[in-house]
């Protein structure tokens, strides 16, 4: 039997039934990587010897009667997580030899759950791109079309899943870095509520692995089914034992509903600052139509939705203020000079990004207060709705484009060019207020490329969009292996 495209849930059942061993699953996954990854380049750091040893340990543990959530299941880990004994570079040539001594907290949780770690997946330089390529490990190709990007910054993980390299992966998300690769590669991903899953050890080298509460950024699960997302989130969720875990335990509420017909859904397909491409629009409407067919309450417009343009501006300012924190004094002063030339009425996203990079603390506090107002409006919205369906990016996967600086690139939307980073506004819809968002497959483009959408849920009600994703998977279908 071909095991590489089976879900983690199916693999766990087969392992419990004795239909397969972890050693067999691991050897099959390794063989597939060795055969196919030369072209895709998803697994940038292989750890096959330790994977084989872990698989053998898992089989022995099972014979002793042990049964952990991921016992014996092959998985991959995004390169940005520390794994003791393996390089963590974030794609930075200067850090190619940096090897951490300790595992990231999420890697420790994977191991404690019994997972078999096959290796690490590729990322863009400093995780700052919607593509995954760097000077150390090269370019990751989309398994559906090798001339196109797999997305970023968790593009290696999404490509690995689509290619059958392990049943699960873990990634991170600040600007859609879980959701965009899932959308581009036709797999599932979940951006958890901000703070739900600790990030310690997911840190740029050579910085120490401190238990820091990151602003905007999260870590989260990736899989080929919605149920597998929920399985992996249960492993990842819960406070860091060094800080909040001393006093708190996680207790996520159940999904609001168990049937599609009971869901109240706001469908948003247009953004005031960037158009939605036809292929993505069709994906959003495919999901909306499926919900309507099952009797769900579908609404296309609501005054309860926080102002998307204002939200995008806040998002850019908050995100870029973090990104610029480590810049040299000289570069920072150059940015200050450029920002001083902006006119007061310049409300473009480019202007918001530039202003964000030189944000004073008092202005950051003002922006943070604006974020809290948006969170309050979202709470009000979720008294009337259970989820919001919207795009992840305006287009399916685009051709590799490594030209110039990020600020000089453009994204083609149905034949018209727009600033490259403006496409991040859809990711920011959930990221800025810290809401959970599940990326699901929603069909194909006319060119045969995967198209995904995101299901945004109420804060700390992650099980609601995850359950909606599972029900939609049953209705419209889910992952399909690349042709």
Structural topology:
Blueprint: H1 8-17, H2 22-40, E1 43-46, H3 48-63, E2 74-78, H4 105-112, E3 116-121, E4 133-134, E5 138-139, E6 141-142, E7 145-149, H5 155-163, E8 168-173, H6 179-185, E9 188-191, E10 218-223, H7 226-236, E11 264-267, H8 278-293, E12 297-299, H9 308-323, H10 329-340, H11 349-357, H12 361-384, E13 387-391, E14 410-413, E15 416-419, H13 425-431, E16 437-444, E17 450-456, H14 463-476
Parallel strand pairs: 2-3, 2-8, 11-12, 11-13
Antiparallel strand pairs: 1-3, 4-5, 6-7, 8-10, 9-10, 9-16, 13-17, 14-15, 16-17
Structure keywords:
37% helix; 483 residues; amidase activity
User: Which structural class do you get from the secondary structure elements?
Assistant: alpha+beta
Q: Which percent band covers the strand fraction?
A: 15-25%
State the total count of DSSP E strands: 17
Q: Which residues form runs of ≥5 with pLDDT under 50?
A: none
CATH topology of the domain at 8-246: Amidase signature (AS) enzymes
What's the overall average pLDDT, rounded? 97
Ends apart, CA distance between termini: 19 Å
Computed Rg:
21 Å
For the record, what CATH class of the domain at 8-246 applies?
A: Alpha Beta
Number of helices: 14
Question: How are strands sequenced across the largest beta sheet?
Answer: 1-3-2-8-10-9-16-17-13-11-12
The CATH architecture term of the domain at 8-246 is: Alpha-Beta Complex
Query: Mind describing the biggest β-sheet?
Result: 11 strands, mixed
Helical amount among residues, as a percent range?
25-40%
Assembly classification: single chain
CATH superfamily of the domain at 8-246: Amidase signature (AS) domain
